[in-house]
């Protein structure tokens, strides 16, 4: 990762907000649309996520097939981007409903070779995996960092795969 990307993806204190996105039911969607239409939908999705990420000062760390790992220097920017992605993708593609799951966590992460590693990344990925299509889930650290700026639903406790403790998450209301 170049120093420019590292600087823009992390805050001055070295913290980062990691966001994972994923199209819910992507394999079934691909099967129902057929591969040519699926690839067009995926191009639309990828362009939309990349555009919103850049608009909100984030960095696309990597593509993950039908989703992304994104990094932001500020929790609020990440949350605003998540809302913008849901608004843009939630309208669907060519009349086809598309539901994206989003999960976010903030903390410190190891930066190496243009990628982020560590517990912060693992928690963000697991939280995204626990989200329903069209849902944005945030961890308690993100909830605290937002300071009431975004409307959040009631907390719930999750057991995240491979993690010892339960984690408190909050759905971020975007519609």
Topology:
Blueprint: H1 3-9, E1 15-23, H2 26-33, H3 35-55, E2 59-63, E3 67-72, H4 75-90, E4 100-108, E5 110-112, E6 115-117, H5 119-130, E7 136-139, H6 140-146, E8 156-159, E9 166-171
Parallel strand pairs: 4-7
Antiparallel strand pairs: 1-3, 1-4, 2-3, 5-6, 7-9, 8-9
Question: Judging from the principal axes of the Cα atoms, what is the shape?
Answer: globular
- How much helical structure, as a percent, in the residues? 40-55%
Please give the count of helices.
6
Question: Can you give the mean pLDDT?
Answer: 91
Q: Major sheet: size, sense and barrel closure?
A: 7 strands, mixed
Pattern of helices and strands: HEHHEEHEEEHEHEE
Q: Total number of β-strand segments? A: 9
Strand content: 25-35%
Low-confidence runs (pLDDT<50, min 5 residues)? Answer: 1-7
Q: Please state the CA-atom Rg, rounded to the nearest Å.
A: 15 Å
Instruction: Output the structural class.
Output: alpha+beta
Q: What is the end-to-end distance?
A: 35 Å
Cross-sheet strand order for the largest sheet = 2-3-1-4-7-9-8
Task: Please describe what this structure looks like.
This protein has helices at 3-9, 26-33, 35-55, 75-90, 119-130, 140-146, and strands spanning 15-23, 59-63, 67-72, 100-108, 110-112, 115-117, 136-139, 156-159, 166-171. Mean pLDDT is 91; it is low at 1-7. The chain is built from six helices and nine strands, in the order αβααββαβββαβαββ. The chain has 175 residues and is α+β, with helices and mostly antiparallel strands. The chain is globular. A seven-stranded mixed sheet has the order 2-3-1-4-7-9-8. Strands 5-6 form a two-stranded antiparallel sheet.
């Amino acid at each position: 990762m170049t120093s420019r990307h590292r600087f823009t993806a992390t805050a001055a204190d070295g913290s980062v907000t990691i966001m994972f996105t994923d199209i819910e039911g992507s394999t079934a969607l691909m099967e129902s649309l057929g591969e040519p239409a699926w690839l067009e939908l995926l191009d639309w999705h990828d362009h939309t996520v990349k555009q919103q990420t850049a608009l909100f000062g984030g960095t696309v760390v990597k593509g993950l097939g039908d989703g992304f790992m994104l990094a932001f220097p500020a929790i609020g920017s990440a949350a605003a981007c998540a809302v913008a992605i849901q608004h843009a993708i939630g309208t669907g593609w060519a009349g086809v409903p598309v539901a994206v799951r989003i999960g976010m966590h903030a903390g410190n992460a190891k930066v190496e070779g243009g990628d982020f590693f560590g517990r912060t990344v693992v928690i963000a990925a697991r939280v995204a995996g626990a989200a329903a299509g069209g849902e944005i889930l945030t961890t308690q650290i993100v909830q605290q960092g937002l300071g009431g700026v975004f409307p959040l639903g009631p907390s719930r406790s999750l057991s995240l795969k491979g993690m010892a403790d339960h984690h408190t998450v909050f759905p971020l209301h975007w519609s």
